[in-house]
Design brief:
Elements lengths: L9 H12 L5 E8 L9 E2 L3 H10 L4 H10 L4 H6 L8 E4 L5 E2 L6 E6 H6 L1 H24 L4 E4 L8 H14 L3 E2 L2 H7 L9 H5 L4 H11 L4 E4 L5 H17 L4 E6 L4 H14 L6 E4 L5 H9 L6 E4 L1 H4 L9 E8 L2 E2 L14 E7 L5 E8 L9 E2 L2 E5 L2 E2 L6 H13 L3 H4 L12 E3 L1 H11 L4
Parallel strand pairs: 6-7, 6-11, 8-9, 9-10, 10-11, 15-19
Antiparallel strand pairs: 1-5, 1-12, 2-4, 3-5, 3-17, 12-13, 14-15, 14-16, 17-18
Helix pairs in contact: 2-6, 6-7, 6-13, 10-11, 11-12
């Protein structure tokens, strides 16, 4: 993403100077995790690791940034001079993007000199928190409509441009067919979808004229928006226009509904299209949709083939935040543990082990110390991805991550697949190892 090093919280810089002043440069272990899942989420899906690695690999201070910091008068010249050579040179373990995870499970582990490991906190939380939030919401939409065309329509309602772009990537990773965000196509190779605007139709004197002109302008894959005035009347105009379009080689792919009772309109439009000899023209719907409304539409038998999902998705409106944390777990070879009431952390560098049944469905997870023996039948979720500040492999193609996410959703136990509140389902079992509990007790017994 080519971020500025100043895209951080002030206290990351003040702590970096404090470590510099005290000559504290021993290795620290930090882990990023979500303390508790939102009440409306039964699982989370990881996204944003690629952006984290890109940030870490390219992190540096420019001359202009250092000049600005000098001008603030907050920092000592010797410290600022040291930042000219500042780079992230640590090691990183992470879960693979597209992996389903749960509360208190570290999804990212950083091992680096304490100043480097501390400084990256804000941006790492920012990236993983947002991308995982949206990937999870998108995954729930995929579960609600697994055989439908799903398209991200959220850029215009996203909280600024970067959010819209990263949301498009997270949605595609989670199983969407593509996005309306053009830069997502150029940047990530995501298929880009688009239809037409109500304003285009209103700018013409006749709706049928707008349909005909737009079809001539975009003849290869036409989707006509038919709810500007009267939805069913517009569908009849599409049927009347279709023979002339076909004669000119225009591919009339679908019609789009964006308002009103979508289920009722879809049934009436489907009947008109079928009676007019257009059974292959699909119906695409949009308009403040989410996984819950989609589930209602499908339960009602609405003949809708695809959905454009925007505001509710790109803002994760029903669960707009994650309780993400990035905490020190060890420093200078000694385990550390935060003991704040309600915000206790498990100490030491850790691994997450997942056990599955004969069909590959997750049965339980175990959070254990990284050097504890593997539990019988378990496999580790955290894998080394960076050493000495450099990736261990090229970025994984998005298609591979997308396939992994699809496999994760396909293997989800049935209670986790439902969109209802977490309290209505038995929680997925996440256990803590005996060794980790013993270490926590030992730390709690030490003076502080």
């Amino acid at each position: 993403m080519n971020d500025s090093a100043l895209l951080t919280d002030l206290y990351e810089l003040t702590m970096l100077q404090a470590y510099f002043d005290e000559d504290m440069h021993d290795t620290a272990v930090f882990e990023l995790f979500v303390r508790v899942l939102p009440s409306r989420r039964r699982f989370l899906m990881l996204s944003g690791i690629e952006q984290v690695l890109d940030y870490l690999e390219n992190l540096h201070f420019t001359a202009g940034e250092l000049d600005w910091l000098h001008g603030t008068g907050r920092f000592r010249p010797a410290f600022l001079d040291s930042l000219r050579a500042f780079r992230f040179r640590g090691d990183v373990h992470a879960m693979r993007e597209g992996t389903v995870f749960f509360g208190n499970e570290p999804v990212l582990r950083i091992e680096a000199p304490i100043g480097e490991a501390q400084f990256v906190e804000s941006r790492l939380i920012n990236l993983v928190n947002f991308c995982s939030l949206i990937a999870t919401k998108a995954a729930r939409c995929v579960l609600a409509a697994p055989d439908s065309l799903l398209v991200d329509f959220g850029l215009r309602r996203a909280h600024a441009g970067e959010a819209g772009l990263l949301a498009a990537r997270a949605c595609y990773l989670a199983g969407f067919a593509g996005s309306a965000t053009v830069l997502a196509g150029q940047r990530f190779g995501i298929p880009v979808f688009g239809t037409m605007a109500h304003s285009y139709i209103e700018a013409h004197d006749l709706e049928s004229e707008a349909f005909e002109r737009f079809s001539s302008s975009q003849p290869d894959n036409v989707t006509l928006l038919i709810d500007t005035y009267d939805t069913e009347a517009a569908a009849a105009k599409v049927v009347a226009l279709a023979p002339a379009l076909k004669a000119r080689g225009v591919n009339l792919a679908s019609v789009r509904l964006d308002s009103g009772d979508l289920a009722e309109h879809a049934r009436k439009v489907r009947a008109l299209l079928d009676a007019g000899g257009l059974p292959d023209v699909r119906i695409f719907a949009s308009g403040n949709l989410d996984e819950h409304r989609i589930a209602v539409l499908r339960a009602a038998g609405a003949p809708i083939d695809g959905f454009g999902i925007g505001t509710q998705l790109t803002t994760s409106a029903d669960a707009p935040a994650l309780d993400s944390a990035y905490k020190l777990q060890a420093y200078a070879g000694r385990a550390r543990r935060k003991r704040s009431e309600g915000k206790e952390s498990w100490p030491g560098a850790k691994q997450v082990w997942r056990s599955v049944d004969a069909e590959g469905r997750p049965q339980r997870d175990l959070i254990a110390l990284a050097d504890e023996p593997a539990p019988p039948g378990g496999f580790p979720l955290l894998q080394p991805v960076m050493r000495g500040g450099r990736r261990l492999a090229p970025p994984e193609p998005l298609a591979g991550l997308r396939a992994h996410a699809a496999a994760e959703l396909a293997r989800l136990p049935a209670p986790l697949r439902e969109p209802g509140p977490a309290a209505e389902a038995p929680p997925y079992p996440v256990e803590v190892s005996d060794g980790l509990r013993t270490l926590a007790r030992e730390l709690d017994a030490r003076p502080y």
